Amino acid sequence: MQRVIICLALATLAACKPPAADEAMARTMVTHALIGPSAPLASPASEGAVWSASKVPGRILYGRPGTTPLLALECEGTGKEALVRISRIAPADEGAGAMLALIGNGHRARIAVDAVRDGQQRLWEGAVAALDPALEVLTGRREVTATIPGAGEVLINPGLAAREFIHRCRDSGVLPAV
After folding, report:
1. Under DSSP, is residue 110 helix (H, G, I), strand (E, B) or coil?
2. For the chain, where are the alpha helices, taking DSSP H only?
3. What is the side-by-side strand order in the sheet with 153-156?
């Protein structure tokens, strides 16, 4: 008898609430599209790209002559406190962060970069102590790849300009315009 009473009570309770339905689900669905990350960028062409002096003291730019630079290195501070700021000049979403992977010259480095507003656009930027061994990836004589997920891969052609820049930054801190 108790079982019959319990079953009747449960059946009555179940009848109080309607079963799950598509209409109920539709009332709780998000009705606007969520804004996600931007579409990934293709890797830029780097044939003929070189490091060159910037108009900004203590900064060098990497890119093809006459085009928008792909990367920038800037020396900030002095002595043991000197930093090398690396910028990947490519659009970045507001609030985004990533790891810049540098591979080449027998080295690998990962540098944390964030989306930073530079004038009218956001680009990727991070800083590393000038004495950090991670920068050795840029001081060799072979090509280097620089990759940020979604911002493409930049092939850095062989050359000594980045090596000389990093060594001067390590030695003296802020560098004069070239």
Report:
1. strand
2. 2-16, 22-28, 161-172
3. 50-53, 59-63, 71-76, 83-88, 121-129, 107-118, 97-104, 144-147, 153-156
**5 SS3 class:** helix
Domains of the chain in start order, with CATH, are: 50-172 (2.60.40)
- pTM across the whole model: 0.75
Q: Which of 133, 130, 135 is nearest to 146 (CA)?
A: 135
DSSP H helices, 29-176, are 161-172
Cβ count within 10 A of residue 146:
26
pLDDT (0 to 100) of residue 22: 41
Structural contact between residues 84 and 128, judged by C-beta atoms closer than 8 angstroms: yes
